[in-house]
Give the backbone structure.
Amino acid sequence: MQAAQVVSHGSPLVIQEVPIPSPSIGEVLVRLEVSGVCHTDVHVQMGDWKVKCPLPMTPGHEGVGTVVKLGESVNNVNSTLQIGDRVTVPWLHSSCGQCEHCWSGWETVCSQQKRTGFTSHGTFSQYCIVDAAFAVPVPEALSSEQAAVISCAGVTVYKGLKVSEVHPGQWVVIVGGSGNLGHAAIQYALAMGMRVIGVDTSQSKCDFMTSLGAHATVNVSTQDIVSTIKSLTGGAGAHGALIIAPVASAISIAVKYLRPRGTVVVIGLPPGKFEVDVFDMVLNAITIRGSIVGTRLDLQEALNLATDGKIQCKIRKRNFTEIQDVLDDLKDGKIEGCVAIDIP
């Protein structure tokens, strides 16, 4: 089968022939139809996180395809999964199921988890191995392209918004609101009843966020983000912020435009560290919280909202041979909405 792999960190992906894998106990083999592309794939390729993937590695973790082979004992793990089922292939490949985090519904922080496209080969390929317990079925009414990008971009921002503690009718700021995750975040926030301020770096991106339904936008290239958000919220500040852009200073600045008891949820992963005004954070009881993808239940909820017509990701289709070009465009901030790769 064909797979686009990282063979050396910092070098372009190499499309090459690799053997079709065989599912082990509790696993299924999925013939992929489409794969989304995420900024995490850029980090996997570049190797710029403090933890690097083993090589060679097939990136990709926003896949949708059809189950073509069942491993041993699959029906003991997921009694409904059958050959021919259309499923997602998400970031969370598996977790231990036995730790306090798994037991309490936080499998996303299990220390024994495996990650698709990082510790297990991912969806930039024709076939992929999936843990049967983590292969979430795709609703019949939802397209494979929509389900693919929701399996990472959608569920990640949906979970981030859930843990922001922003209630219906309250203000949430989405930093990096025109991109892959950001444009989905605006739609999920609106579906959850929030009032949305989108933040990005150009007027065209602000116009795009407005077209998605954002109540207001901030162009950081021409406007002061703190004073503008304060003004938009009647001087009180926003109730929460979702930091999607991988820019460390965005985290520090968010503390300044939130109202007391506001929450900063960090999704973007810039390298290095960030500084925060501890005085402002403590006296205003500001919470800064990380959020990583979502659980299987979160994913099912995110898919259901899309099936109900409340989420419509803007997707541009690209060919499998263009994967490296897509990663370059993503790294350079040239992509509005999402990209879905057709798997040959």
